[in-house]
Amino acid sequence: MVELEAPQLDAVFHALGDATRRRMLRDLTQGERSVGDLAQPFAMSLAAASKHVKVLERAGLLQRRVQGRTHLCRLDPGALATAHEWISFYERFWTSRLDVLEGLLRKEDAQKPSGDTHD
Asked: Which Pfam family is one of this chain's hits (predicted)?
């Protein structure tokens, strides 16, 4: 299982816990965007958008570069991929548990008399 240090994992899930930041990340899948571009769908100030960008940046979900007075952001998918691996561990755990349950239910059904129609 991939182990992320708790602060990094916490930062990723904190960043993803906000709908505005998730939308910003989705917008960045289309390519590099300025902070102003990221703010536009929300009619928020550049200062408010910048706070969201900083959270995403600290979580390692985006990279920012300055070009003149413009701050340009681009998606950094590494942290998302690592978080996905962490989640996948639990997906595999629950899938295996459900497979065991299915096997038990099938075994129980097979042991029922064929004329039994009661549930």
From this structure: HTH_20
Number of domains in the chain: 1
Taking the chain, what is the end-to-end CA distance rounded to the nearest angstrom? Answer: 40
Reading the block at residue 54, the tokens are 């900083």
DSSP output for 33-67: EEHHHHHGGGT--HHHHHHHHHHHHHTTSEEEEEE
- Tell me, yes or no, whether 47 lies in a domain: yes
Bridging pattern class, strands 70-75 and 62-67: antiparallel
Q: Number of C-alpha atoms within 13 angstroms, CB side, residue 10?
A: 3
Is position 113 within any domain? no
CA dihedral 79, 85, 90, 95 (to 10 degrees): 140
Bigger pLDDT: 87 or 62?
A: 62
CATH of the domain at 77: 1.10.10.10
| Structure tokens, 79 | 């942290």
Q: How far apart are CA 83 and CA 90, in angstroms?
A: 11
